[in-house]
Amino acid sequence: MLAGTEDTEGDPLPDYSPPEPPPLYDVAKRFVEDITYRPFAGVWLGRFSPGSKTITLATHDAPVFFHELAHAVHHQLKPGGLEGGQHAGQEVVAELAPAPCGAVRLPGLRLARLAVHQALRRT
What we know:
Strand order of the largest sheet: 1-3-2
Order of helices and strands: HEEEHHH
Oligomer: single chain
Largest sheet: 3 strands, mixed
């Protein structure tokens, strides 16, 4: 049996949350049950879990948050929800959906938006 943190002794666990929530945090809470932060363990920077409707982040970078938020929104809009794991179509949506956020000059997204526009011009 596992014990909850409230049932343990010792120093409190560190809080990995950012000093301020990311932009559109209130919007994200309409699509997910919880948004949590954890230390980076060398595997992923963020993940959306459809079963528990949670976003877990190992970074404070807004583009990662928007990517996971895009997965959460896509999960609700797609009939039957998202498939588990990494699937090209789902990843394309999650990469492109946040691009318009660059229009409001959020850090890190302007360059991504420009790269997407350049890539689209080449096709």
